[in-house]
Design goal:
The complex is a heterodimer of chains A (342) and B (91).
Chain A: H1 41-46, E1 67-70, E2 76-79, H2 82-105, E3 111-112, H3 117-126, H4 138-147, H5 162-171, E4 178-179, H6 191-217, H7 219-257, H8 261-270, E5 272-276, E6 282-286, E7 293-296, E8 307-311, H9 317-330, H10 332-338, E9 340-341
Parallel strand pairs in A: 3-4
Antiparallel strand pairs in A: 1-2, 5-6, 6-7, 8-9
Helix pairs in contact in A: 2-3, 7-9, 9-10
Chain B: E1 4-5, E2 17-24, E3 27-34, H1 38-53, E4 57-62, E5 68-72, E6 81-85, E7 88-90
Parallel strand pairs in B: 2-6
Antiparallel strand pairs in B: 1-3, 2-3, 4-5, 4-6
Chain lengths: 342, 91
């Protein structure tokens, strides 16, 4: 037997498969599938026992050779091992038969053209995904396998068979009516296009280089401005801290002049002092601005919780403490009414 | 003595002197007057009433070394030190 370029894996006498293997011209629509309307459908569905394929040729069995063949129905097979290819083919044919049964049962899927990825997908819709290993639409098939059969979208960007893939994504497998398997031709750039792209790239690079050069030229100016800004900020911060220190010292002096010697001692030592109000209650005022007032129990322990009331204008913490002290001493209820609890 | 704003350097107010200590972010601003000097007392009173209208509370320090507060509802030049405190609000 001469070594053919392509090998018919199924003898010509075997019952033909019924899956359409030719791409329909764009715009055509094959009527709803009905096994009785497709030539050989019933025979194919009955062909459970397939004849054995032809024995492999020497060319086919050459170690490591990629074995490719096209069966009478246009199904392209590819495998390094002819025996494996035949096994795959047989498995695929079995799957197709089941597919046709499934199609007959599910009339929603009415027309499939193209025996590539769609058939593989259809096969795997009813069988394990590993059975479809010979699809030539590996990109979309792998992408679909990756995201799983329940996915409604795919991040794959290398899909070749985009018409089918988009249709599947857009409609969902249960509502697909027509899918045209249209291989997208590979676009080869012409020398003119290459030249134009190269020129555009050169112009872009030149513009980028100019922008970079201008940016670098301005760097000393920017850095000087930044140093100036940081120096001004540091100076302003230094001035602010100095003013704050003066304000704190002034406020502390005023507070101390309004405290008893005992209160002064605890303020110096612990940063708080206690205030006994006319009701007999004792409050502890800590240095701070908010939630710095606590209630002291008769046994000297501090009750849980804090009171938060402070002047409406921003004043140093020592002024805040004095304002709280005066308010507690003169109108405890007003303080308690105003203060938030923490 | 003319009315002036200055820091107090001693804790005790000299006899015959008055002081309005107004709390602000600088610590406190002090307005001083001499009892009997009508111009100074009028200026202090005007400031007192202006701050009261803005919601400030006026306290005079009483008790030993002025360690107790007492609310002032009107300007009294004889009090000595008056501390003007911004109204408290819940924090």
């Amino acid at each position: 037997m001469p070594a053919p370029e392509t090998v018919n894996a199924v003898p010509a006498t075997s019952a033909p498969l019924i899956i359409p293997n030719e791409c329909s011209p764009p715009g055509t629509f094959t009527p709803s599938y009905d096994p009785t309307l497709v030539p050989g459908a019933e025979a194919a569905m009955a062909a459970a026992a397939l004849p054995a394929p032809l024995p492999p040729t020497a060319q086919e069995t050459a170690p490591g050779r990629l074995w490719r063949s096209t069966d009478p129905n246009g199904l392209e097979l590819a495998a390094k091992d002819p025996a494996q290819a035949r096994a795959d083919y047989k498995e695929l044919v079995e799957s197709y038969r089941t597919v046709m049964e499934g199609l007959a049962a599910q009339r929603l899927i009415t027309n499939t053209t193209g025996a590539g990825v769609w058939n593989a997908w259809a096969v795997c819709d009813f069988h394990a995904t590993q059975t479809a290993v010979t699809t030539n639409d590996t990109n979309v098939w792998n992408a679909w396998n990756t995201v799983g059969t329940t996915a409604t979208s795919c991040g794959c960007t290398t899909v070749i068979d985009n018409v089918m893939w988009n249709a599947w994504n857009a409609t969902g497998k249960q509502t697909v009516r027509t899918m045209l398997h249209r291989n997208q031709p590979t676009i080869e750039a012409t020398p003119e296009q290459h030249a134009r792209w190269e020129e555009e790239r050169r112009i872009r690079d030149a513009a980028d280089a100019q922008r970079r050069a201008e940016f670098e030229a301005q760097r000393p100016v920017r850095e000087a401005a930044e140093r100036q800004r940081q120096a001004e900020f540091a100076e302003a911060e230094k001035k602010r801290l100095a003013e704050q220190a003066v304000a704190d010292a002034r406020a502390k002096k005023l507070l101390i002049e309004c405290l008893t010697s005992e209160q002064r001692a605890t303020l110096e030592k612990y940063n708080y002092f206690d205030v006994k109000v006319p009701s007999g209650q004792v409050y502890r005022i800590h240095k701070g601005w908010a939630h710095n007032v606590k209630r002291v129990r008769p046994d000297g322990t501090v009750a849980p919780g804090t009171f938060c009331a402070h002047p409406s204008d921003q004043v140093p913490h020592y002024d805040n403490m004095l304002a709280q002290k005066f308010t507690l001493e003169t109108d405890e209820q007003a303080f308690l009414r105003i203060a938030n609890r923490g | 003595m003319t009315m002036t704003q200055m820091d107090i350097t001693t804790s005790a107010m000299p006899k015959g002197q008055g002081e309005l200590a107004i709390m602000d972010r600088t610590g406190d601003t002090k307005l001083m007057w001499t009892v009997g000097n009508q111009v100074e007392m009028d200026a202090a009173k005007e400031m007192f009433e202006k701050l009261r209208a803005k919601g400030y509370l006026a306290y005079k320090a009483v008790g030993e070394k002025g360690d107790k507060g007492e609310v002032l509802h009107s300007f009294d030049p004889e009090v000595g030190r008056i501390i003007m405190v911004p109204a408290l609000k819940g924090g």
